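pasting for ref
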Amino acid sequence: MERDVNAVRKRIKLVVAYDGTNYKGWQVQPNGITIEEVLNRELSALLGEPITVTGASRTDSGVHSMGNVAIFDTMTRMPADKISFALNQRLPQDIVVQDSAQVPGDWHPRYQKSQKTYEYRILNRTFRMPMRRFDTYFYHHPLDVENMRRAAAYLEGEHDFKSFCALGAQVKTTVRTIRRCDVTHTGDIITIRVTGNGFLYNMVRIIAGTLIEVGGGKRMPEEMREILAACDRAAAGPTAPAHGLTMMGIVYEESRGQ
């Protein structure tokens, strides 16, 4: 495509929903296809220039999203709000851009003040339900939801979440603030919903694994205080499987870039 000499570089924000079942996570990997790779490829073909997106959250293999946020810079003259419509014509059915908008050139989804929300869903029943196999973690032993709620309450507020961080994670600090950690029960589905200002590697999945142990009677709710105080990954429960986790979305505290 011939370059438009009158074009001006601009920054576009995308809100991206995806079923992570068939992908090796968000970030480009050498061992399989990723969400980022598909977006880069289809945006480059659509706009006729090399495009590299940057995501707010590098979700793991098998994790889903209702609204991850990404940005990219482009010289296209296509209106920002039309990019989502054009791009969705090219994307596979398990990736759909929910919105596209122009943002200031220095706006970055990882460095704005924000609140992220994740949900971990557990299918708690005697037998599996085939149509929920990709978006819930099947657990057939009965879980005490009230005990899970009591345990989750200890996680709210600012804490050192080192016990809930995967070993080997490279971070400056393991202190994070959890605004809310709720456990709800609707039918056969138990949902752990966590909202905070940021999350460590595998943090929500480790929280889920620990709460499942509480719900199953392997731990008492009050042990959450000891787990937090230990600052030791070995003190917490297992990392729950990825396919039960969905990133629900990101709310930015500043109005610009919305």
